[in-house]
Design goal:
Number of domains: 2
Main location: membrane
CATH topology of the largest domain: ABC transporter transmembrane region fold
CATH superfamily of the largest domain: ABC transporter type 1, transmembrane domain
Order of helices and strands: HHHHHHHHHHEEEHEEHEHHHHEHEEEHH
Strand order of the largest sheet: 6-7-8-3-9-10
GO molecular function: ligase activity
CATH class of the largest domain: Mainly Alpha
Subcellular location: Cell membrane
Structural class: alpha/beta
Distance between the termini: 76 Å
Bound molecules: adenosine-5'-triphosphate
Number of helices: 19
Keywords: ATP-binding, Ligase, Membrane, Nucleotide-binding, Transmembrane, Transmembrane helix
Organism: Psychromonas marina
Length: 587
């Protein structure tokens, strides 16, 4: 019933997480034999009560047997509860660990993964898929294991007591099994569709909610509603089909149970009248039938739950096997590179070419330049010319470049991210601010950055003044993504953040968004300060900022078309000079 490459593989993965909690798992499993013994004792005691005591009119020990029956029943309940409690507990702990491991993995996935996958899909892996496993899988598997063992044990016992009556039960087993396997496969397919349409629906919702202002502004509500309705309809259709299979199976098995009980009463009564069967055995059989058929009926819903979980496992596994950026790469060890990478000396691009994926065109072609300690390089060029891509390669966001990038003489692709990030501070265009204090947003929770250093960074980038004027100063709490700050203030915080992180090389991707003239002035001053005393590689959209940088690289469609300082490039009267005269802010 389980397929080796899929289901068993997923189970193995799950047990990897459950291993840590084997004490409670073992306690739960230890209850199984007791549960089986008590459920076998019950029909045996019924036979004793009816055949040995009631029918023969021996009332002496009858009360004892009634007491034994009640005791067996009570023990059976306690044992079953202990079994279920401990195994569910194990499962819940394992799933909590799995959730954390998955989240940690997602955080380390390469940027290319996020480029290609809508965020909503990843979100639904981390939420609804894990929930499907947490809520249903453990519960269903715990029930399924106990019920299966119990049913087999009861059937064996029934065979020993009366094989003819047991045969009545066994005859109906094959069609039940066949139907269960058939429906199992149908349900699996339906559940995959429901989960994937749910994931896409969540992805779409997330996109729309992020851009809700645009939707409202352009009155695009109807189109968006229609698109969401399509996801919803697809989800509903798959769910309806899954429900239909579930219901048909449930009804079929309930019917089979009733028919078998009727058959047994008819056939058994004949045997009792012919005196080849005792009344006690017939009653014990009818009583036990429920215990065999109720689990068989429940198997179907347990199997449906397990199907849902396996579909969710399959999705989650996709994340677990998603290759990490550094998987399969030959990296130098920290011991080998640490002495050479303690202090930044030199970064060299030697004929570097790069494309985002093998099927896309090159966005960097044969790029060469050198950044020495204490110098500044500015990258300019039209939109899409490859400036940010250069920064991304240095930050190791992407790694499959051609040519050579040497950091202090070591090939960058052979150095792990952890071994080189301390050298760089990055200020990106798309600033992300957390719903936390300004202090947190500057230090990013890094305990090595003291309160004094945070404030020093604030002063360094001229952000201190406006921060001090906010209620609570550095403890002022930002709204989600800094919506209670102005655009320019957001940029200044991001500036302070990159200074506080203390990298020896500042990589700046200057924001293009316009800000008020006072803040603009502060940003300019902060940039000039950085340019005058740090090693900088900057993408500058305001050409006035970079006129004092040592080298200006002009990029056009991924190629360096001009290289030199401001004076040299102005004298050349080429592209840079053209850009300069276009720029209203350049003088
Ligand atoms: N993740 C990506 N996947 C595929 N192509 C990409 C990706 N990011 C950027 N590109 C492409 O690479 C080229 C260079 O982009 P890049 O962001 O480096 O340009 P840029 O010069 O920084 O532009 P801008 O000034 O607008 O920020 C563009 O053609 C862009 O479409």
């Amino acid at each position: 019933m389980l397929n080796y490459n899929g289901d068993i593989y997923y189970l193995k993965n799950f047990f990897r997480f459950a291993k840590k909690y084997k004490a409670s798992a073992l306690l739960g499993i230890a209850m199984l034999p007791l549960s089986i013994i008590t459920s076998l004792l019950f029909p045996w005691l019924i036979i004793q009560v009816i055949d040995v005591h009631l029918v023969q009119g021996d009332m002496d020990d009858l009360w004892w047997y009634i007491f034994y029956l009640l005791a067996v029943l009570a023990i059976n309940y306690v044992v079953d509860a202990t079994y279920a409690y401990n195994l569910r507990k194990t499962g819940q702990y394992a799933i909590t660990d799995m959730r954390s491991a998955l989240f940690a993995r997602v955080l380390k996935l390469p940027r290319s993964y996020f480029d290609n996958k809508p965020t909503g899909v990843t979100l639904s892996r981390l939420t609804s898929d894990l929930e499907a496993i947490g809520e249903t899988f453990v519960q269903a598997i715990v029930g399924l294991v106990k019920d299966s063992i119990n049913t087999i044990a009861l059937l064996i016992m029934m065979l020993f007591i009366n094989w003819q009556l047991t045969l009545v039960v066994l005859i109906v087993m094959p069609p039940v099994m066949y139907l269960t396997v058939y429906v199992r496969n149908r349900l699996r397919a339906m559940n995959l569709i429901t989960r994937s349409s749910l994931a896409r629906g969540i992805g779409f919702l997330q996109e729309v909610l992020l851009g809700v202002k645009t939707v409202q502004f352009y009155r695009a509500e109807e189109q968006v509603e229609q698109k969401y309705k399509n996801f919803n309809d697809e989800f509903l259709t798959a769910q309806k089909k899954a429900n239909k299979y579930d219901a048909v199976l449930f009804a079929f098995i309930s019917g089979i149970t009733s028919i078998t009980i009727a058959l047994m009463i008819w056939y058994g009564s004949g045997l009792v009248l012919a005196q080849t069967l005792t009344l006690g055995v017939l009653i014990a059989f009818i009583n036990t039938l429920e215990k065999v058929f109720v689990p068989i009926r429940d198997f179907t819903s347990q199997i449906a739950a397990i199907q849902r979980s396996f579909a969710a496992f399959e999705h989650i596994e996709e994340l677990f096997v998603e290759p990490m950026e550094e998987d399969g790469r030959k990296l130098l060890s920290t011991e080998q590179v640490a002495p050479q990478l303690a202090v930044f000396h030199r970064l060299e691009f030697k004929n570097v070419s790069f494309r985002y994926t093998p099927d896309l065109p090159y966005v960097l072609k044969d790029v060469s330049f050198v950044l020495e300690k204490g110098k500044q390089i500015a990258l300019v060029g039209s939109t899409g010319s490859g400036k940010s891509t250069i920064i991304r390669l240095i930050a190791k966001t992407y790694q499959d470049y051609e040519g050579s990038i040497l950091l202090n003489g070591i090939e960058l692709s052979e150095v792990s991210v952890d071994d080189c990030t301390h050298l760089f501070s990055l200020m990106m265009q798309d600033v992300y601010l957390f719903e936390e204090s300004i202090r947190f947003n500057i230090a990013l929770g890094n305990a090595d950055i003291s309160a004094a250093q945070v404030e020093q960074a604030g002063r360094y980038v001229y952000a201190d003044n406006f921060i001090q004027n906010l209620p609570g100063g550095y403890d002022f709490c930002l709204d989600k993504n800094g919506t209670n700050l102005s655009n320019g203030q957001t940029q200044l915080i991001s500036f302070a953040r990159s200074v506080a992180q203390g990298g020896q090389v500042m990589m700046l991707d200057e924001a293009t968004s316009s800000v008020d003239s006072i803040t603009e002035n502060l940003i300019q001053k902060a940039m000039q300060r950085l340019f005058s005393d740090k090693t900088v590689i900057a993408i500058a959209h305001r050409l006035s900022t970079i006129r004092h940088s040592d080298t200006i690289l002009v990029l056009e469609q991924g190629e360096v078309v001009e290289k030199g300082n401001h004076q040299q490039l102005v004298a050349k009267q080429g592209i840079y000079a053209g850009l300069l005269s276009e720029s209203t802010l350049s003088l």
